[in-house]
Amino acid sequence: ITLIENRIEAACGFLSKKLQPGGYWEEYINSAGTSNCWATGFVASFVKGVNGIDGVMERGGVKTFLSSYLDSNFAYNDIAPRDGDSTNFGLLALYTMGVDVVSKVNDWLLYQHPEGGFSTYIADDRLALGELMGMEHEPDFGFWESPQPCVSAVSLYTMQKLHGHTALSTRLETLTRYMVEGFRDDLWEAYWWTSPIYTASFVIKAAFEGNSESLQMVSSRAIRRLQQEQQRSGSWGDAFTKQSSFYTGLMADALCSNDSLLQANQDSVKAAIHWILNQQLSDGSWAGSDAMRLPAFRTKDLNCIVDWPVRRKSLNVRSTEFN
User: Fold this and answer.
1) Residue 31 buriedness (CB in 10 A; 0-12 / 13-18 / 19+)
2) How crowded is residue 164: how many other Cβ atoms within 10 Å of its Cβ?
3) DSSP one-letter string for 193-222
4) 52-106 residue pLDDT tens
5) How far is 157 from 150, CA to CA, in rounded Å?
6) CA atoms within 13 A on the CB side of 70
7) Cα-flanking dihedrals φ and ψ of residue 75, to 5°?
8) Which of 44, 13, 12, 10 is CA-nearest to residue 27?
9) Residue pLDDT, tens place only, 241-282
10) Residue 35 phi/psi, 5° resolution?
11) What H or E segment, with its residue span, contains residue 293?
C-alpha cells in the first residue's frame, strides 16, 4: 500500500468516526449554532468517489440525510432558515451521488440576483433569520442578502455540473459574466471566508469544467497570483494561519480538477500534497484553520476589520472549528 493510500485510509477512518447516527457530519459553531446540513453537503461533495468513503456514507445514511432536504429546504442546521450556501453543497453532493435534483433547481435559483450573482439569504426569510440571530426588528440583512463572489463561485461550479441536465444556459451565462466582471487584482473577494483562495478554488474548477474562454483566462491569472503566495513548504494560508490545511487542500483540489491544469501546475501540486501528507495527525485528521467568518451584515468594507477573533457568538468574528 502506498503512503497516499495509507493516509486516505486514515482520513476515511476519521470521517467514519465523526459521522453521526443520523447520517450527518457537524462542523463550525457560531451565532447560528452548529452546522449539520451545510457541513455534510460540503464534506460529501468533496469526498464522494474516494476509495473507502463511499461505503461509509452509504452505510451511514448520508444520501438519505441530504435527500430529506429536497422536500424541505437546505440550511446551515435544522433551526436555521434556508440559505444559498447550504443549497449549493446539498445539490452538488446529491448530484455526485446520482440523485435527481432537478426538482429543487427552481428553489435554488431564488438566490440568484439580476446581476447574476448568488446570495446566502433572501428577503423572504428575514423574519426567520431575525428570530435565529435574536434580531427580530431588523428591516433587512444587508450584505447577507446581497450576491457575494464566494457564494456565487460554488453556485457556478454546481451549475456547470447540472448544466447538461437542466435548462440553465441563460442563468449560467449571467453568472459567468458576474464572476468575470467581479475579478479584481487577479482575485475575487470571499465574504464569508478568511482568504480569497476559497472563491478562487471553485471558480477555477468551474472554469475548466466548462468552455468559457473569459472565465478560463481570469482563472489562469488567479492561479498565477496565488502561486506567488504559496509558501516554500508547499502550503497556502491566510492572515491568521500561515500554513492552512484547509486552504492548501482547496488549492490542490482545484489544480488537480483538470488534466491540463495538473500538467501545467505539477510543481505546485506536488509541493502542496507533500505538505498535506506531512501534516496529517495521528487520528487521520488535520489541524483546523477557523477559516469561516461571520461579518456584521451592514459592514461593507471587511478590510477595515483587522482583528477577527474566534468566538462561538457575536459578529465580525471567525466561527469556531471543532472537527
Assistant:
1) middle
2) 7
3) BSSTHHHHHHHHHHHHHS--HHHHHHHHHH
4) 899 999 999 999 999 999 999 999 999 999 999 999 999 999 999 999 999 899 9
5) 11
6) 18
7) -150, 170
8) 44
9) 999 999 999 999 999 999 999 999 999 999 999 999 999 999
10) -80, 140
11) strand 293-294
Which amino acid belongs to residue 127? L
- Alpha-carbon distance of 92 to 108, in angstroms, equals 11
Banded pLDDT at 165 (limits 50, 70, 90): low
Mean pLDDT of 162-167: 76
Query: For residue 284, what are the contacts with CB-CB under 8 A and spacing of at least 6?
Result: 7, 10, 11, 12, 13, 14, 15
List, in sequence order, every residue forming a beta bridge with 82; answer none if it has no partner.
75
Sorted by sequence, the CB contacts under 8 Å of residue 213 that are 6+ apart come out as none
Q: What are phi and psi of 27, to 5 degrees?
A: -165, 150
What does pTM read for this prediction?
0.97
DSSP state of 50: S
Q: How many CB atoms lie within 10 A of CB 160?
A: 23
**CA–CA separation, 101 and 105 (whole Å):** 7
Can you say how many angstroms the Cα of residue 223 is from the centroid of all Cα atoms in its chain?
18
- Match 513548504 to its residue by C-alpha cell: 233
Residues forming beta bridges with residue 30, ordered by sequence position: 33
Phi-psi region of 293 (alpha: psi -120 to 50; beta: other; left: phi over 0): beta
- Per-residue confidence (pLDDT) for residue 231, from 0 to 100: 98
Can you name the residues that pair with 193 across neighbouring β-strands? 292
Q: Mention every residue, 6+ apart, whose C-beta is less than 8 A from residue 36.
A: 20, 22, 24, 25, 26, 77, 78
Rg (CA), the chain: 19
- For residue 119, count other CB atoms closer than 10 A to its CB: 24
